[in-house]
Specification:
Two copies of one chain form a homodimer.
Chain A: E1 2-11, E2 16-24, E3 27-36, E4 53-57, H1 68-76, E5 83-87, H2 94-108, E6 112-115, H3 127-135, E7 138-141, H4 146-153, H5 157-167, E8 172-176, H6 178-181, E9 186-191, E10 202-206, E11 214-218, H7 226-235, E12 240-244, E13 248-253, E14 257-262, E15 265-270, E16 276-277, E17 290-299, E18 302-305, E19 310-313
Parallel strand pairs in A: 4-8, 5-6, 5-7, 7-8, 11-12
Antiparallel strand pairs in A: 1-2, 2-3, 4-13, 9-10, 12-15, 13-14, 14-18, 15-17, 16-17, 18-19
Helix pairs in contact in A: 3-5
Chain lengths: 325, 325
Amino acid sequence: MISLAGWDILGNGSATYFYSAIFIEDTIVLIAMLEVRTESTIICQNILNTKSAILVIGGAEDKVNFREILSTFWSRSGGSESILAIVPSASREPAVLGGRYETIFEEFGSKKIKILDIRDRTQSEDPQFREYIEECTGIFLTGGDQLRLCGLLSETSILERIRQRVHSGDVTLAGTSAGAAVMGYHMIAGGGSAESPNRSLVDLTLGFGMIPEVIVDQHFHNRNRMARLLSAVSAHPDRLAIGIDEDTCAMFERDGTVNILGKGTVTIVNAGEMSYTNRDEVGTEDPLSLHNLKLHVLSRGDVYHMERNLAFAKKTLINDQNCPL
Amino acid sequence: MISLAGWDILGNGSATYFYSAIFIEDTIVLIAMLEVRTESTIICQNILNTKSAILVIGGAEDKVNFREILSTFWSRSGGSESILAIVPSASREPAVLGGRYETIFEEFGSKKIKILDIRDRTQSEDPQFREYIEECTGIFLTGGDQLRLCGLLSETSILERIRQRVHSGDVTLAGTSAGAAVMGYHMIAGGGSAESPNRSLVDLTLGFGMIPEVIVDQHFHNRNRMARLLSAVSAHPDRLAIGIDEDTCAMFERDGTVNILGKGTVTIVNAGEMSYTNRDEVGTEDPLSLHNLKLHVLSRGDVYHMERNLAFAKKTLINDQNCPL
């Protein structure tokens, strides 16, 4: 199977690079690079070395204009060869919202699209749905209410099968807003803002565990959610806290890197070296102490390396023969 | 001159400590410590080793009940021997607001209190005001509008004299809200929230330079100001960015430590080891990248060491014979 992987633009101030790529089986191959204003160069190969990915989207992604995030999901699912499942179960208007995404992916030109309109836990046993999950190359979880989504799908056999296929790299997964919130093992179900970080500022429960090592928050700076994310970090400092702005995507690659797409920022709080928290000693509404956290604010074209807790600007890697990724 | 320095409570889960202290000349001396539930112990001496301090208050400090922050300012200014100047020039109702603080410090029992109601730049030459500044032991800058405060006082001879006396440790200075915002060399004049960090999200100008190495934001988590503080950091990564919640105080000691008082948190963003920002390459409304920042969230009883960029819980130092401060 050969399909177009999409295109991208890179710039480093003195030069701009336009590149495109194709998929050949499971490997993405750079097929064209046009450099403007300076001599030829190469991109660190590891940036584009996998096909399936998990796209965690901060909600309100562009559905009308350039649609960068949705078209990236489509191309990473196989482009014109893609077989897509849309899961609108987080929404109280699943048919309408599912239909909207169906129209978009039809316009892009998918091979096959199906809305898995699961409104009842028993539907997870539907043989048609189960069969389609085996076949599909991309799964999209819409926005809505993450508690509703978990209520319908958590601990069902269809979700377990989706998780297996995602983890084995057989399918590309995307989730936006509520669909993003469920990605971690721990999930932010709700919370407040405009308060000092404190235990009662965030409601935590269990998510789908697609990327168990992260806790995701969405509509992040748009809804001023830093204090609630910090409150979540205090509960689970062993997880990487990730706040994703609207129309912004953290795309998790299978090699442990995260690429940033879209119009806003991705905020990463790493408490791996936290030297102190008072969490276990204070009341639920008392202010929290969290000493010695690492903070990254990433925007389009940045790359984060999960294991090494390092952030890079992709363009700074262009001429790096000793690519650190 | 001997005066009461105030009291404090420390606890480490297994024991609670009540202590009090007096000033003898310029040195604060621990005079009483009562430990409840465990054997006797000592406090790292350096915590209480100076008298004058700069209290940076996040606004809306308690003026009615226990008044922890205001009473600490009063005691660090000399307590019953204090000669206080209240500068209400940030406010559009300077007489009312100045009067309110005057009443509070009268209740505490200051030796002398004067409201320096400067409403015009020429008043900075008023011989009475100049004389009082030489005499006073504590200066309090009220809230209001930091641009108004700067417009009236920046580059006046009275402000220069205040700065000299503060820097030589002869006087304790406090500022709340607008009075806190002016403390740095760079000042946040205004800004927005609910957006990805971007250059246009914060308006920066020059402050009073009382603590030149910091950029202060106030009403911090209460008004969701993390994104604007990060935007400010990108402009001046060599400064320490400090966001102070309401009814919370970062008290800067002359030995380079910062003690936290009050009901909320103090958020510290240190960009000293920032590995990358796109600030100089992007448009004013484009999202910012800021890689590899250090973040501390501090609450009451925490201590921050400016030079070493380290945070401690004061109680963890109680039994530390090799006190790291």
